[in-house]
Amino acid sequence: MDTKKLQQFMELVGRLKHMKRTGWVKRNIPDPETIAGHMYRMAMLSFLVDGKDNLDKTKIMQMTLIHDLAECIVGDITPYCGIPPDEKHRLEDEAMEDICKLLGDKGSDILHIFREYEKQETPEAQYVKDLDRLDLLMQAFEYEKRDNIFGKLEEFFVTTNGKIKHPFISKLANDITSERQILLNGSDTAK
């Protein structure tokens, strides 16, 4: 493997450790999470995959670490950035091709897993999408508690409502939402 290209790859991945997630930046959240932090928690959550689901845990873990990799080049494009979904997918796919070229044969594996996630046709890809949404809910809830801004991040709960399909992840999401509602009701009565 070409060590210069590997170093370039490492530098690109390293960008994600410092890139703040767009949704939180646009909402003026102080000290928002990075893209790498988001992917790391998702990877840790992949340990929760239950053997009875017949899911490939290794692929899920890999997918969590790959799914936002293109953002080191294109940035964190959200639905509110004004870029149509087809254009977003095209930009991210081109970025992934460029990233994966740096890794020779190993890059084709990464590109294949990324494209599998993007297509959302396999149970593993759908599970990772559910983890992505779960992490979004948890992060929004953490910010509301940390910054005492209960209810200010409601849109994240609304946009994910009913979209998480896996029963276990859906239960976790419902538990987070219920706990948040209790705190919201408490903050309303305290006013």
UniProtKB/TrEMBL annotation:
Molecular functions (GO terms): 5'-deoxynucleotidase activity; metal ion binding
Record flagged with keyword Nucleus: no
Coiled coil ranges: none
GO CC annotation: cytoplasm
Cofactor: Mg(2+); Co(2+); Mn(2+)
Superkingdom assignment: Eukaryota
Keywords: Hydrolase, Magnesium, Metal-binding
Record's catalysed reaction(s): a 2'-deoxyribonucleoside 5'-phosphate + H2O = a 2'-deoxyribonucleoside + phosphate
Keyword Nuclease set for record: no
GO process annotations (BP): deoxyribonucleoside monophosphate catabolic process
Ranges of residues in domain HD/PDEase: 31-146
Subunit structure: Homodimer.
Protein name (Swiss-Prot/TrEMBL): 5'-deoxynucleotidase HDDC2
Name of the gene: LOC106743071
